[in-house]
Amino acid sequence: MHRLVYKSQAVGEPSARELADIACQSQANNKRFGVTGLLLIHDGSFFQELEGPRSAVSQAFARIRRDPRHEKIEVLEFGPARERAFASWRIGVGHPEDLPETARDFAFSLFDLIPRDAPERGARDRVRDKVRAYLAAFERLVPEGDRRH
Ligand SMILES: Cc1cc2nc3c(=O)[nH]c(=O)nc-3n(C[C@H](O)[C@H](O)[C@H](O)COP(=O)(O)O)c2cc1C
User: Fold this and answer.
1) How many distinct structural domains can be found in the chain?
2) Does the pTM of the predicted model rise above 0.90?
3) Which structural domain, as residue segments, surrounds residue 66?
């Protein structure tokens, strides 16, 4: 088991159609290769956690890092993981109801991440801390009480 966490910046402002394309492509590949995790999208910024067999995670990231739809990719963690933090692969966006129907099955609202113990943040402290740090960068998303700084 390996885990990869990175963040990046969208090139341009992705439309709901483009987000749904990324979501559907990712979900199909990840399911096929035993990769679980989450992708968060907010304000032109991506955050992704991928976990699964080392080769599957590395191969997914080799494709992802070449993708011209994002840039300024910053790896926050890559290494062995004892257990998965997520049971499936899902995408968190501000308004999942705006996505085409095909993507809605595995989409959730970013606002579901706001409670400190939200299951959407994953089952491992290391991952939850990274999700929290990412969310805390957005003034309007996370309430005061959940900020560390
Ligand atoms: C922010 C972002 C996250 C992505 N996440 C994944 C992913 O988790 N898994 C994946 O296979 N592709 C992901 N992709 C898409 C890949 O970059 C690539 O387009 C895709 O894997 C190619 O798949 P295909 O060979 O089946 O067309 C992501 C793309 C972007 C921009």
Assistant:
1) 1
2) yes
3) 2-146
